[in-house]
Amino acid sequence: MSLLRLFRSKPAGEATPVQCPFCLQVSPAAPGLKQCRNPGCGEPLPVQYLRRYGEAPPLFLPMMGMPNAGKTNFLIAATVAVVSGNQFWQDLDYWPLTDETDAFIEKIERSMRTGVLPGPTEAKDIKKVYVLQLLRLPRWSNRTWVLRDVPGEHFKDRKIQKDQVPFVIHAKTSFLFFDLNGANEKAGNKADGMFERNIDRVFRAYIMGLEDHGVVFGDGNDRRVVVVLTKADQLDLPAHLKKYLWEDEHWDSAKRGTALTNGGAFFDDDAMARYMDRLRRVDAELKEWVVTQPGGRSLVSAAELTNRVELHFCMISAIPCGVQRSGQSFEPRGKWQQPLRILDPCYWALELNSRPAP
């Protein structure tokens, strides 16, 4: 049973056990609960996290990928999108729930006022987890994002860093970031380039790392992996995928006030339903393209052979995107530096974790 169904099945007035956002262990519901009951954790639990736990259930998302795959820049750009969210989600409200997340968002807001986005080092301030509560989202209502960086260097030895083991093995959905363009460039210059070049290697290391820590696939341990192709504007994609990448309705709406629904320039429930239908088509089209890339067919085969592992594909541009479309050609971007399709991975995670469990 999924967490969302668990929350909804509770009788009125019955307290819900709380899953810690730091270690993902469950603490029994108890009056005055203020910190994780796991002796190996003991982290203070954010008040808003506890207060809205049943109303805005957590969505735990490890961010996996090799160095320079784009994880940090994704976190920065996704935060920019949320802070700008009222331009396309009419009633959105957001709450950073940890001091680290709050300080990070404050830097983002300050940078947006100056017109200069923060560099990757800014996200290094998130030493533990990024916890952001989103209220009144179209389609998905209220959710709490809990993201954690999982350095890919450790996967070379089939290992998950010790302090990250609980988070990774208990999270049902994970992001796998991969820079195909950068990885292919590095492959000829480094002795270990084959590991970075083959997109399936990190995925296999993730699976073996889980099994090393006692995860038995097919025993209720279904996993969803969202493969995020970063810097997609630099890839030699088919024309229809390039068109999808460049025609991002979010920033078109924010820039020009383009009406996305009959009621105005906002994504409502109907608009999000249509967007997800299109995102599913892009998923299938990207999968067809990925299998033509080094390691791509092996990645898909490995997921199919590992019982109950579900792969989905999406793409985002470089951050900031280096060029913009002008007619049929491309030219350097000016001050408008919003990345393209940056919310697609988030939409997949929300969708996958809101459907009924199998």
Describe the structure in your own words.
With 358 residues, the protein is an alpha/beta fold. It has one domain (3-352). Helix content is 36%, strand content 18%. The chain has 13 helices and eleven strands. It has helices at residues 3-8, 47-51, 71-83, 99-114, 165-170, 180-187, 193-197, 199-212, 239-246, 249-256, 269-290, 296-305, 344-352; strands at residues 18-19, 26-27, 58-65, 93-96, 130-137, 141-151, 173-178, 223-229, 309-315, 323-326, 329-332. The chain has a seven-stranded mixed sheet, sandwiched between helices. A two-stranded antiparallel sheet has the order 1-2. The protein has a two-stranded antiparallel ribbon with strand order 10-11. Helix 8 (199-212) runs parallel beside helix 12 (296-305). It is globular, with a radius of gyration of 20 Å. The N and C termini lie close together (8 Å). The relative contact order is 0.14. Mean pLDDT is 79; it is low at 1-13, 187-193, 256-264 and 322-336.
